[in-house]
Design a protein that fits this description.
about 300 residues; alpha+beta; 7-stranded antiparallel sheet; 4-stranded antiparallel sheet; 11 strands; about 20% strand; elongated
Amino acid sequence: MPNEAPVPARVRSPLLAAVLSLYLPGLGQLYAGRRARAVLVYFQWVILVGIVMKAIFELRQPLNIVLPIILVIGSYVFFAVDAARLASRAPDVPAKWYSRWYGLIFFLILGHGAGTEQYDSRSNRKVRVLTASMEPYILNGDRLLWREDVSGSAWRGHVVVVNFPDYDSQILQRIVGIPGDTISMRGDSLRINGRLVDEPYAVRNADAPKVKPEFSWQLGFLLPGVDRQRYAPSDRDWGPLVIPEHSYFLLGDNRHNSYDSRQFGFADAGLIRGAPRLVYWSRGAGVRWSRIGLKF
């Protein structure tokens, strides 16, 4: 293709150049026949993405949302105007292969592939919260970015993103017990290795204790000496249970509106995928603007 004979010149559309540059920065400049400028603009866009992602996760709310929006809008307007200006001022540029439709499609695919790889390498996955089990820390209707970081997430007290076969998407729960712990609950109060745990994040209510058939799995992990014949666990009173290797005990903060390890059992270490980082959108009865940009 690079050795292909030049095609006769034709007038370039400034509007089309601007649209192409909005779709992928640099593409409009390439359409205008300015290959070097296209490369420069594209790498400016790559650097911009890095700056925006850094700002989102390191600046304070609401600056971590306002500043990236200004940077993105301002940069895209600049790229589009630049592409339109080049197209209007260079009607006599020969239509070489890279500025024809097949060349533009080639660089569009190449450029978007590189941009996607850059985004994925930062491990910014998305999850939509569909339950109230972690309220008020994480709300039903929150949309989160989360980092795929297993080794740095599986610690007692951390909120984690978990893959469960019974769910179509990930769920979020808090790790309250780690391998080797002896864990129990008495009167809604959590105990780890015999010690009462302070849980300022936990939400409880005055409803009567609930006894469910799903609790029966606990019989196989009771501490030796517990009378299994008389064991009748509820959502407020259960254990003590011994957590096996490579397993974790998860609870929702909204204790009486949560489906968690009390019912489905221990979570295997391989199911824990990472930790939430930021709320990028939140909607309940309306848009919850105060939560957008909230970091964890």
